[in-house]
Each structure stands twice: as structure tokens, then as C-alpha cells.
Amino acid sequence: MYSISEVARLLHIKQERVRKWCEEGRFEGAVQIGGEWKIPAFYFDFETDDGDVPNSRNSFNAKNQYFSH
User: Fold this and answer.
1) 54 partner at 20 to 30 Å CA-CA among 8, 26, 42, 45?
2) In b/e form, how buried is each residue of 1-40, taking b as 16+ CB within 10 angstroms?
3) Is the pTM of this model over 0.70?
4) What's the topology of domain 2-67?
């Protein structure tokens, strides 16, 4: 599970946007623990078959079209 700040850093976006997505229910499986959002790690599983890790933001957008705009 990732925190809002970790997701924001991975995607190079503001924490406020990640928080809004959590509140809107865009991250299926995201939960609030002690008042802090935790986002499932599977959204950020970017490793390719050959072990490379591509650009996280582009990979996230390609994998999760709902978030790309």
C-alpha cells in the first residue's frame, strides 16, 4: 500500500489530486487508516517482462486510463 505522498511522487503530481481521486473512489481498494489514505500497490506494478521499470507516470496512465486526465 502506498501513501498519498508516495503516489504523488511516483506520478509527479500534487498530493491534493491524489487525495481527490481517493475521495472520489477512483482507486479501487484504497482505504483510510488512521485518517490517512492508503492506495493498493497493484496500481503501480510497472515492471516489464524483461525486468525494466518504465517511466512511472506514462505506465500508470497507460494501465489506468481513468486517471490520465
Assistant:
1) 26
2) ebebebbbebbeeeeeebbebbeeeebeebeeeeeebbbe
3) no
4) Multidrug-efflux Transporter Regulator; Chain: A; Domain 2 (1.10.1660)
